[in-house]
Design a protein that fits this description.
Radius of gyration: 55 Å
Strand content: under 5%
Structural class: mainly alpha
Protein name: Protein unc-79 homolog
InterPro entries: ARM-type_fold, UNC79
Number of helices: 58
Largest sheet: 3 strands, antiparallel
Pfam families: UNC-79
Helix content: 40-55%
Organism: Cloeon dipterum
Length: 1377
């Protein structure tokens, strides 16, 4: 015995020596034949030892408790050393140069013989060792490996029971204690699936395991979940081939079940047909049908196996003929039936005694008791037959497999395998996507299967006879799409969402399904493809159920930062940056849109988070502009822009709803929200605009108007919010403390602290809308207003909207309304710079930016060039209107004249008369009663001088003598008509804010009724006196300049809203503009002067400006006159931009101001006189010529002013001798005017018969006729002044027509202002108004000599003005050319 042991041990050492020589390449290297011969000798030794054993060790292998007794039957040889030597040789198989086939056969035979001699731990590892040999042994041995597993190894390892046979039979169907061998079934299956491309091998091994282990489906699901690509494909196909339908109603309600199963089989690259794999043949050496007869019986007696098959390991598999022959010779041998392969996977019950009406198969039984009814083939049962054959009384020890139930009813481990199987199958479609990816993303996707294909890569390094990688991984798109559809079928049949479903499981499935949508969206396939049918018929209802039962889970999976359990598949499996993750997630949403999965409600919840994530990522990328920017980030940013453009395309958007609904997620964030929410939303819109994504202007205006309306709630003094309806709405926005109510808070990119960052290089998220300087609501409101204007301007440019289309269009009206609402928001007056300079104040700088943006917006819509100056028809007191008024025919026609909107018409009441009485009752003649007119002076709106008010006239009423006795006359009440001809009830108390006092009367108008353009102008004018910052003033004036001169806003107001314009002229326009004329800020004056001069040409502009000039230069305080000199000089400096031709009122006003400026050079105050002299020299030549033109026009138009004009020009000529102030043409034109006027007077007296001028011009020429008309107007004006009264002094400056004294209360003032009336009488402290010595001032004649006594009167005040000492010869005619 010792010699036998030593020989056995020596042979084992010989095997170890073979392994070392192969491993280290020691010569001579053993071949496969050498090793095979040595291993065969071990097989013979083991069979010889086994032959002497009295008991059947194979029967003892079934029970673990008999292992000790079993091992005691054999001699003490180194069985485990032999096993370890074979294991080590399997590791160096790739190094064997030849004889590999013989080596493999010998190893399989030896392992089959060695099974009975191993201990329990080693037996458990034996199945996996045999299965792993498929990775290194040639393909020709794959069938032998499978046969070894199915008939010699697995029946004695998987079925090993740890308990006694009696107890196990009672509890086998309830609980099975897993051993290492049973737990390694999934690994065994995966090895065979991966390294064998023959589906017959897969079916044979799976059917063998199904006959021994009830829970094989769990192993299949495990392989599908965690196996390699080839193994997953085979496992998924076997799962659908062998298992009964999961849920027919869920998979297909219209199509028969067998069509679904056939579709699975037909689309498989290698259909699973059980008849394809060959059955095991008879193992008897002397079988008469060797190589043909199928094994039908098995004998577990080791003696019989050694006797009848001396080279085969036990047990012995025999055909029927051989089994009967041996049984006749050895009656004590027991034979068991061998279950045959499944001939066909039936969909209906195969029991011949089935009486159920529903014959759909729900289980398959592999026990011989049930299989005997199906000719020893596994049999399928319906539900009724299954319950009758497998219950507590019978069939409890049968191995059967039932249809899979809902995943929510499975045990935790099985459900985990199922969910992961669905995920892995859906992931197969990711590699089929043809969507453009960046290079790094492609590399990441290619690395997905590296780990799963590791065994393939190792196998490819083996001997050249092996080529298994290409046969295992499905390379075609159809195969991968089929696998992904398997996952969809599993999901919709076994994982239908319910209210009790695990939220994380549902989220995981939803996330993977969304990736599947994205992966299959770019496949070039027709709409009738299986994937598209699945999406519309099965997946869409499943998603609808998820949205119904778990809406927040579905929304969270669509977010840019989904929960951790939803970060699976697709881009989550790659090592990419945050931008790549965002791009892939956005692309996923785009792929979902065509299937109506994204509803408007989901869109509104998802998009705010996406916008915040995209903006934050964009800011992070922009912060790297001074560092090294990855080209991949630039590429991904461009792809994100393309995806957003597709999603938000207003015309071609795949969302399926209109632009209003598409941008509703932005609109709702402007209503009843805080300033921080609005600013964050505006940041998103700015980001979209930067990507050149169009947002319709009307939608933007609606958003911004609502946002500004929400801002205005904080301003209690807003007169535009006085309507009760608005107050009720706005009061709902505040709580009891007055703070703004809101149900929407700023979006946080990732509000879950448990979620990990999207990439390793991602830092802490910085909110896109955060700004360190602005914290309070007014400051944030200002920032929001700036962003609104910036977005609006850029969107108008992006949409190529017409520029300079005018300020009266629909779009311009909405823009002006928005600007007007912004400027009355609380941020305008709620800020004070405390403890810092205004130049360093961020709020003040932002305020300047807002006005600058408003200017850009107004410039965009307003005409590019200034419009023509107002014609003479719009002037207040033009001579044409007077002439037209004189030519009116009758009172009836005057009543029919169209009244202007600003006229206030009063219907005068009729006087009440007494009843005539009975005295005239019997009078036969007809009496005529004349009702007199009663004029009541109602001081509601006095007559505007330029308009003729129709008086109320009561006509004569004719009555008969029979009616006189009872006739009565009633006084009718006065009727007041507003600007728009609406009747006004005068009995009701008037709101004071609706009546506005002016120098020409009261006007009734409401600011809310004005056009939005005029309302915006009004708000800008209100800002002028309170604004101190020069930059803000400049932009406000620029806006007014564009609106008034380019947009013709004030001219239109003079026609349609005269009362409003007159009130603005007297209160907001001219005086404020006059106060802004400061030489220190020339850029402000450059804009202010044209607006001021334009206002002078409008109604009441001349009167207001005339009075301001007169008051300033007649002021007692020299500082006021000092400032007036500067302001008039500023007007002169910037005069060249304003046309003066045909502007008689403007010429008269400038002549008046210029005369005051000239006279100020002789002011009694030295500072005023010196400043006037110095500033006069700063006026450029063009302005001097324009001012001289105004004086000439005043000379020709007003006869009484001619001495003063000549005196002013003479003084100007002497003070500015280097300028050519006077010329020959000046005197010729003036003498020509005097000559024509003298001829007109002579013609009236009859002294001459025709007129001519000094130039002897053609009497019919336009030039001569213009001179003649001007002379007539001057003479008529002179006659009117002489007949109407003398000029009034400054004491009557309160009257709007202070130049003349009207003879009647409502008599119109003269059309042309006179300098004589403006300068008035001699002022004691003035040196410019000289008079003869014998003439005393009127103040002295009136007895006011106290004024003269206070100041020393110099004699030169009553003489000619002090001039430069020059001889009179210098003023000869020849001196001028």
């Amino acid at each position: 015995m010792a010699t036998r042991v030593a020989a056995f041990t020596a042979k084992v050492r010989n095997l170890h020596d073979f392994q070392l020589r192969l491993l280290h390449g020691i010569v001579p290297v053993p071949s496969g034949l050498d090793i095979a011969n040595t291993i065969r000798s071990f097989s013979q030794i083991l069979l010889c030892v086994l032959k002497d054993v009295p008991y059947s060790p194979l029967e003892m292998l079934r029970n673990c408790e008999q292992d000790t007794a079993r091992l005691a039957l054999f001699p003490n040889l180194d069985y485990k050393g032999l096993y370890n030597a074979i294991v080590q040789l399997m590791d160096v198989v790739p190094l064997i140069q030849y004889g590999l086939h013989a080596f493999g056969q010998s190893v399989l035979q030896c392992l089959g013989c060695l099974l009975s001699f191993l201990d329990a731990e080693t037996i458990d590892t034996l199945p996996y060792l045999v299965a792993s040999s498929m990775a290194v042994l040639p393909d020709s041995l794959h069938q032998e490996i499978v046969n070894c597993l199915c008939f010699y190894i697995l029946p004695f390892t998987i079925t090993r029971k740890p308990q006694s046979e009696e107890e196990d039979q009672e509890r086998q169907h309830l609980q099975i204690e897993e051993t290492y061998a049973s737990q390694s079934v999934s690994a065994i299956l995966m090895m065979v699936f991966q390294f064998s491309n023959n589906s017959a091998h897969h079916c044979q091994l799976l059917e063998c395991l199904m006959a021994m282990k009830p829970g094989v489906v769990k192993d299949l699901l495990c392989i599908t979940a965690y196996g390699t690509a080839g193994a997953r494909s085979s496992a998924a196909k076997l799962l659908f081939y062998y298992w009964p339908p999961f849920n027919i109603n869920a998979i297909e309600k219209r199509t028969p079940t067998h069509q679904v199963r056939l579709a699975v089989q037909n689309r498989s690259p290698a259909p699973f047909v059980s008849a394809d794999w060959p059955p095991l043949l008879c193992q008897r050496d002397s079988c008469p049908n060797t190589g043909v007869a199928e094994a039908a019986k098995v004998c577990f007696d080791h003696g019989a196996s050694i006797t009848f098959a001396n080279e085969k390991p036990p047990p012995l598999y025999l055909c029927i003929e051989c089994a009967n022959e041996i049984h006749r010779c050895s009656a004590n041998l027991s034979f068991h039936d061998v279950i045959h392969p499944m001939q066909q996977v039936a969909l209906f019950c195969e029991s011949k005694s089935c009486r159920s009406s529903d014959k759909q198969a729900v289980s398959v039984c592999f026990s011989m008791e049930c299989a005997s009814y199906n000719t020893n083939h596994p049999i399928r049962h319906c539900r009724s037959c299954h319950q009758s054959r497998h219950n507590n009384r019978r069939g409890f020890d049968h191995v059967y497999h039932t249809a899979l139930t809902s995943s929510w009813k499975m045990e935790v481990e099985t459900r985990t395998f199922l969910i992961e199987s669905i995920v892995s199958l859906l992931q197969e479609a990711s590699s089929t996507s043809s969507v453009p990816e960046s290079s790094s993303v492609k590399e990441g996707l290619q690395m997905l299967n590296v780990q799963s294909n590791l065994m393939d890569l190792q196998s490819s390094k083996s001997a050249g006879t092996l080529s298994v990688t290409s046969s295992q991984t499905p390379d075609s798109i159809d195969d991968k799409l089929l696998m992904s559809r398997h996952g969809v079928w599993l999901m919709v049949s076994l994982c239908w969402p319910t209210a009790e479903s695990d939220a994380e499981v549902i989220g995981r499935l939803v996330s993977m399904l969304l990736n599947w949508y994205a992966a299959t969206a770019y496949i070039n396939d027709h709409l009738e493809s299986p994937s598209e049918k699945l999406k519309t018929e099965h997946v869409a209802p499943w998603i609808a159920a998820v949205i119904d039962k778990h809406p927040q889970i579905f929304v969270s999976c669509l977010l840019p930062h989904p929960p951790e359990y939803a970060r699976i598949g697709g881009h989550w499996e790659t090592l990419t940056g945050k931008s790549a993750h965002l791009k892939a997630g956005l692309n996923r949403i785009l792929c979902l849109v065509p299937y109506d999965v994204v509803s408007p409600e989901i869109w509104d919840q998802v998009m705010p988070h996406w916008m915040e994530a995209l903006v934050t990522d964009s800011n992070a990328n922009a912060s790297q502009r001074f560092g090294i920017t990855s080209p991949m980030n630039v590429e991904i940013s461009s792809q994100i822009s393309i995806l957003l453009s597709k999603l938000l395309d207003p015309e071609m958007s795949p969302l399926g709803f209109d632009s209003k609904t598409m941008y509703n997620f932005l609109t709702v964030r402007f209503s009843r929200t805080s300033a921080s929410v609005q600013k964050q939303t505006l940041t998103w819109i700015q980001f979209l605009t930067s990507l050149e994504i169009v947002v319709q202007i009307n939608i933007l205006l609606k958003m911004f108007s609502e946002g500004v309306r929400t801002m205005k709630v904080a301003n209690p003094d807003d007169r535009f919010l006085r309507k009760p309806s608005n107050l009720e709405k706005l009061s709902a926005l505040h709580d009891s403390n007055g703070s703004r109510k809101t149900s929407i808070s700023p979006v946080v990119e990732d509000d879950s602290e448990q979620n990990s960052p999207l990439s390793e290089d991602e830092g802490p998220a910085i909110p896109a809308s955060s700004e360190a300087g602005f914290q309070t609501d007014p400051e944030l409101n200002l920032s929001c207003c700036i962003m609104m204007l910036d977005i609006l301007l850029k969107q108008m440019q992006l949409q190529c909207m017409e520029r300079h289309s005018g300020i009266w269009g629909a779009l311009a009206t909405e823009i002006c309304k928005l600007l007007r609402n912004m400027i009355i928001s609380p941020w305008v007056t709620s800020h004070k710079c405390e403890g810092k300079q205004s130049e360093e104040c961020m709020f003040c700088e932002s305020r300047v930016i807002w006005h600058q943006m408003a200017l850009h917006l107004v410039t965009y819509i307003a005409p590019d060039l200034p419009l023509q100056q107002p014609d003479s028809e719009i002037e207040v007191f033009s001579s044409e209107e007077v002439e037209k008024g004189k030519n009116k025919s009758s009172p009836d026609s005057e009543k029919k004249q169209e009244m202007r909107p600003s006229d206030v018409v009063i219907t005068m009441p009729l006087p009440e008369t007494h009843t005539v009485g009975n005295v005239l009752v019997n009078m036969p003649q007809i009496m005529t009663a004349t009702v007199e007119t009663v004029s009541e002076q109602l001081d509601l709106a006095p007559i505007i001088p330029s308009e003729k008010v129709v008086p109320a006239i009561a006509r004569a009423v004719t009555i008969t003598d029979t009616d006189v006795a009872t006739a009565t006359v009633h006084v009718q009440k006065a009727t007041l008509v507003g600007e728009n001809d609406q009747p006004i009830d005068i009995e009701k108390p008037f709101d004071n804010r609706e009546f506005w006092k002016t120098s020409v009367g009261k006007f009734w108008f409401s600011f809310e009724d004005l056009p939005d353009q005029l309302q915006y102008c009004h708000q800008l004018l209100k800002e002028l006196p309170t604004t101190k910052e020069p930059d803000v003033l400049y932009h406000i004036l620029q806006s007014l300049h564009i609106l008034c001169l380019h947009g013709d806003a004030l001219v239109k107001a003079s026609r349609d809203h005269r009362g409003f314009l007159i009130w603005c002229q007297e209160n907001l326009l001219i005086e404020n503009l006059w106060n802004l004329l400061n030489a220190e800020h020339g850029h402000i004056c450059d804009v202010c002067v044209p607006v001021l001069l334009h206002c002078i040409t409008l109604p009441c502009g001349l009167d207001v400006f005339w009075n301001i000039i007169q008051k300033a230069f007649h002021h007692q305080d020299w500082r006021q006159r000092f400032t007036a000199v500067e302001r008039v000089t500023v007007i002169a400096r910037f005069l060249d931009t304003t046309p003066l031709k045909n502007q008689q009122a403007l010429q008269s006003a400038l002549a008046n101001a210029f005369c005051y400026l000239i006279s100020s050079m002789d002011d009694i105050n030295v500072q005023v006189a010196q400043r006037a002299t110095l500033f006069m020299g700063t006026v450029h030549d063009r302005a001097i010529k324009a001012l001289v033109l105004c004086l000439e026009s005043q000379f020709d138009s007003v006869i009484v002013d001619r001495p003063m004009v000549l005196q002013s020009l003479y003084q100007l000529h002497n003070s500015m001798s280097d300028r050519r102030i006077l010329s020959w043409d000046f005197f010729l034109n003036r003498f020509d005017t005097l000559f024509i006027e003298a001829q007109i007077n002579a013609e009236k007296c009859g002294d001459i018969t025709y007129l001519r001028d000094l130039r002897n011009s053609d009497l019919n020429s336009e030039t001569f006729l213009r001179k003649l008309n001007r002379a007539h107007e001057a003479l008529s004006q002179s006659d009117t002044s002489n007949s109407g009264g003398s000029a009034q002094g400054p004491s009557q400056a309160d009257s709007p027509t202070s130049s003349t004294a009207p003879s009647a209360p409502h008599q119109p003032p003269p059309l042309i202002k006179t300098l004589s009336a403006s300068f008035g009488t001699k002022w004691p402290y003035k040196r410019t108004m000289s008079a003869p010595a014998q003439m005393l001032p009127r103040a002295e004649k009136a007895g006011s000599s106290s004024v003269i006594d206070k100041e020393k009167v110099y004699s030169r005040q009553f003489s000619a003005p002090v001039l430069k000492r020059r001889s009179s010869g210098r003023f000869g005619i020849g001196e001028y050319s």
